[in-house]
Structure formats: structure tokens, C-alpha cells
Design goal:
Elements (H helix, E strand, L loop, with lengths): L2 E4 L6 H14 L3 E4 L18 H9 L5 E3 L7 H6 L8 E6 L2 E6 L16 E4 L5 E5 L3 E5 L12 E5 L3 E6 L4 E6 L1
Parallel strand pairs: 1-2, 2-3, 5-6, 6-8
Antiparallel strand pairs: 1-9, 4-5, 7-8, 9-10, 10-11
Length: 178
């Protein structure tokens, strides 16, 4: 199984469409969205082609493929537009014998997470791509729409044995095997 992971769309139809092209190119089975889907948030600049309503409409076409968590910019009003659930602060997945705790990252962080040694924490929120191994694996796909730290717009690919972070051209930025 292959899971396409993205975070921090922030209402950009331009970058969502780019991400969905990547999802198709990657031939992934599911899309895991780590929050901050429609609203840009008061601390962020407006992303390119900001259109939350169109983002919702486009994502609804993939509702049977989407697993999502709530970000700090997501609200009940957003849920009214989306045809897949987004109001959970986290979700647990199991892949390749590993427990995956997926969250946005504003409530559960590297310092505060309910998983054990060898498990995987995936979060967004920081807009910074990350692939690390400590007692647990810590992954962040970066941001699809508003990357920080001089990083390119990016997404993650999760399989039963690897985590890759790629830019929108499909070039691998970071990779880790587990």
C-alpha cells in the first residue's frame, strides 16, 4: 500500500491541483491530509489562488480516498463543506507492522505523543519537511502550499517500509527506510 501525505493546503486551489497531479503520478492508494485544509489562518499570507470553496469541491471528488485530521486552522464550518471527516485531532493507521499516529502537530508533538518505540509519528503544522529516527520515527511532509525555511512545496509518500518527501516535480528531498 502507498499513502500520499500532504499538509497545510491553506485554501490554495493552485497547489492542491499540483498535489493531486502528484497523487496520480505516484499511483498512491490513499491521501492522508494532516490538517489546515481550507483556511489560510491569520498568521499566514494568502496562498496562491486562494479559493477554499473550490478546494473543498475538488477534495470531495476524492472523498473515498481521503483520511484527514484537523489542523489549528480547520473548523466546524469547514466540515460543512467537506464530504469526508476532518474534525479528529489524530488518526491511527497500521502499515507494515507499524503503528502510525497521524496528527496536525499543534496538539500532539514530538514531546507529547501516545505511541511506543519503533512506531511512527506523522505531523504537519511546522511547514518543514522532516524524516528522523529516534526511539520513534518522526515524519513531516512539509507544506503543499506555504513551505517555510527555504524549502520547496512538498508532500510525503508512505509505504510499508519507507518514507519519502518529494517536491512537486517528484524529486526526492528526504528519505528514510524503516
Amino acid at each position: 500500500m502507498k499513502i500520499f501525505v500532504m499538509s497545510d493546503i491553506h485554501g490554495s486551489i493552485y497547489y492542491l491541483e499540483k498535489a493531486l497531479e502528484c497523487f496520480k503520478r505516484e499511483e498512491a492508494d490513499y491521501i492522508l491530509i494532516l490538517g489546515d485544509i481550507l483556511y489560510h489562518g491569520p498568521r499566514n499570507p494568502l496562498p496562491r489562488d486562494y479559493n477554499p470553496k473550490l478546494v473543498a469541491e475538488k477534495l470531495n471528488l476524492y472523498k473515498d480516498k481521503i483520511i484527514a485530521t484537523r489542523g489549528n486552522c480547520d473548523s466546524e464550518v469547514d466540515q460543512m463543506l467537506l464530504e469526508f471527516p476532518i474534525m479528529s485531532d489524530f488518526t491511527n493507521l497500521f502499515l507494515g507492522g507499524k503503528r502510525i499516529f497521524a496528527t496536525h502537530g499543534h496538539l500532539f508533538t514530538e514531546e507529547k505523543f501516545p505511541i511506543g518505540k519503533g512506531d511512527i509519528l506523522i505531523s504537519g503544522h511546522t511547514h518543514l519537511p522532516l524524516a528522523e529516527k529516534e526511539d520513534i520515527y518522526i515524519f513531516n511532509p512539509g507544506s503543499i502550499a506555504l513551505p517555510k525555511g527555504g524549502n520547496p512545496n512538498s508532500y510525503g509518500i508512505l509505504t510499508s517500509s519507507s518514507w519519502d518527501i518529494k517536491d512537486l516535480d517528484g524529486q526526492t528531498l528526504k528519505s528514510i527506510l524503516y
